[in-house]
Design brief:
InterPro entries: Aldolase_TIM, Indole-3-glycerol_P_synth, Indole-3-glycerol_P_synth_dom, RibuloseP-bd_barrel. It catalyses: 1-(2-carboxyphenylamino)-1-deoxy-D-ribulose 5-phosphate + H(+) = (1S,2R)-1-C-(indol-3-yl)glycerol 3-phosphate + CO2 + H2O. The protein is of the alpha/beta class. It has one domain: Aldolase class I (TIM Barrel), CATH 3.20.20.70. Helices cover 42% and strands 17% of the residues. The protein is built from 12 helices and 10 strands. The radius of gyration is 17 Å and the shape is globular. Bound molecules: indole-3-glycerol phosphate. The site of indole-3-glycerol phosphate (IGP) has 14 residues, from strand 10 and helix 11.
């Protein structure tokens, strides 16, 4: 990790402070088993992304973002999620972090409104957050390589998997892709947005595609996707799925925009 303080560092510091006020204590495996027995099984993100016409779409519900500002602040998650699914979304990502005006309420609302897998989009640095995500109805979580030292990334990946969650593991370059796979990631995301400058470079998604084997892994292109031309380039490069948010949330008709993006 770089020594310069970045936007990611700021969010992680806020997250640590938040977690300290929660003091979850240690949950025993017995307690966890009891908890899991009460919860519905997770929906299969891998299965949703693996089949059908590529790239599959993970459509994101995001009210605002530090990089883009307000997108659709008073949006109704149930309505937007239904539009996404009708337009062909394979899965839905929901921001739950407060820097994005996200919440677990949004996650629960979306989970109840659709039958596709729902990804909890947050800055996860602890087991307690993973338990919470599972309890709130997440089918999958995001783990960010740049936010976690290798042993922690592996531990959280294993822990989430034990709870039945699938992980989208996010990298920004070839080194991080390697770390993701070393931690056991099968669904690898390449985030085209630079976390320091917020600049987006879709070429990075294409550049690092060869670093992830086509068999046994899925490769997800994340962030900055704007139009059909972008999607066509990513499709030609062999990207399995795209994660797209801002352009949909800003659109007058998010469903129509998604359908246009992923049309064959
Ligand atoms: O809104 P965009 O540019 O279409 O990007 C979606 C998604 O990739 C982005 O929200 C994202 C990717 N990784 C993250 C980590 C945390 C918060 C947000 C993100």
């Amino acid at each position: 990790m770089s020594s310069e303080a970045t936007y990611l560092d700021d969010i992680l510091a806020a997250k640590r402070a938040e977690l300290e006020t929660v003091r979850p204590g240690n949950t025993s495996w017995q307690q966890l088993d009891a908890l899991l027995a009460e919860l519905p099984p997770c929906r299969d993100l891998w299965g949703a992304l693996a089949g059908g016409h590529k790239p599959r779409a993970i459509a994101e519900f995001k009210r605002r973002s530090p990089s883009e500002g307000p997108l659709r602040e008073s949006a109704d998650p149930k309505h937007i999620a239904s539009l996404y699914v009708a337009a062909g979304a394979a899965a839905i990502s929901v921001l739950t972090d407060r820097h994005f005006d996200g919440s677990f309420e949004d996650l629960r609302t979306v989970r109840a409104a659709v039958s596709v897998p729902v990804l909890c989009k947050d800055f996860i640095i602890s087991r307690s957050q993973i338990i919470r995500a599972r309890q709130e109805g997440a089918d999958a979580i995001l783990l960010i390589v740049a936010a976690l030292e290798p042993p922690m990334l592996r531990d959280l990946h294993n822990f989430a998997t034990d709870l039945g969650l699938q992980c989208l593991v996010e990298a920004h370059d070839d080194h991080e892709v390697e770390r993701a796979m070393a931690a056991g990631a099968k669904i690898v995301g390449l985030n085209s947005r630079n976390l320091q400058t917020f600049e987006v470079d879709l070429d990075n998604i294409i550049r690092y595609r060869p670093d992830v084997p086509r068999e046994g892994f899925l490769y997800v292109g994340e962030s900055g996707i704007q139009d059909r031309k972008d999607v066509r380039r990513l499709r030609a490069a062999g990207v399995d799925a795209i994660l797209v948010g801002s352009v949909l949330m800003r659109s007058e008709d998010p469903g129509a925009k998604l359908a246009e993006l992923i049309a064959p």
